[in-house]
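User: quick one, fold this
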Amino acid sequence: MNVGVRGNPRGAGESGTVVFFGDGSYPIVGGRGRNRSMAHDLKFIVCNRDEQFAPELRAMLLKFDGVRIVAEVDEPAMLNQAVVQFGVDVVMVDLDPTPESILPIVGEVAANHRDVAVFAVSESTEGTLILKAMRLGIREFFPRPLDEKTLGEAIERVASHRVDRVSHGRLITVTGTSGGVGATTVATNLAVELGELVAGRVTAVDLDFRFGQVATFLDVDPTYTLADLCQSGEQLEPSVVTRVMTRHDSGISVLSRPLHFAEADNITAAACMGVLSTLLQMNDYVVTDGPTRFDHSAHSVFALSDVNLLVVQLVVPSIRNALRILEGMRQSGYNTDRMRLVCNRTGRDSGHLSIQHVSETLGLEVFATIPDDWATVSGAINLGEPLRSHSPKSKVRIAVQEIAERLHRPRADADDKDERKKSLIGRIFATS
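Assistant:
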């Protein structure tokens, strides 16, 4: 299995690569709450050169609520730069097959970034290797195969030291399973509805780098775009990001797709993830329209996200694509518990496809349905208005508003649980 498509982050030398998950074989065409404990938001970089071990390691990490893998690095020499770019909490390194050659590099990372926890994994359990790793500043050493409980306890220890740091916002991706299913309509209107709930601290990002229409749907004329922010290989300053954003009348910010095709070609997965990571420090919610392809960039976005809304219509091509996407994610070790199925334009003649049938086929409960009202939706699109202002009492607008409220409510519930000091490890291993 091809674990990753490689893309150099800007500023990197030709000898190093950052691996972002996926083999690009599943096309998609279509359109963390600020007050929470850092136990909910731990960003990982994984350094691993074993393609067969990658899905197992990824699946294990993504079992834990709040763990976000922002990148996979296949060259240890790239670790220092990746940590600077993404500002992560944990670096997890597979020392095999040559621990002695990798350990000095990992030790340098630990020495240069003392606020970052460094975890090591190896098939070797020799005492001399473990002792050397500890002396170099590696905080945790895990033998293979990984033990879930032991790893969870280590993650909890890191989380307990992050409680005083600023928490990140929640990343919500909206992905269409085929052209015209309504992903852009859902994404733009969801961002506006969430903005109403959190006084505008929301950014809508267009991840369809070539044909995205988020700016058109919201009738904004951006001066700067995602391409401008992706030109730097360093961690972005919030002040720089603020100047690039386009403000919408509703109060949310918009980050448009590039204005020219050539600019889209120059956006790397690493640069895109750096932008999203910075946006999550500045917002209560970041809502993306896309990813639009199941490629290296998409995998990293899915891994970072809190909720992935998968938008389908009750037609065979859409459902088949949804099944391919989900199967590909499961095989690659992704946590599909974060996937939420949204059936759009329900009520039309679906050719005998029922919501229940679709749910059983995909192995996902239907999170929400949106009724068919093309006349209202197309009118809003043509005027560049969100449904909240164009047709506030329409059934479609009410359905999207309910989605926003359902997504926002778990955050409030989590804040209540934090008041009762329920630990991350307790959530992970709870039996109820």
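User: anything notable?
Assistant: The longest helix spans residues 395-419.
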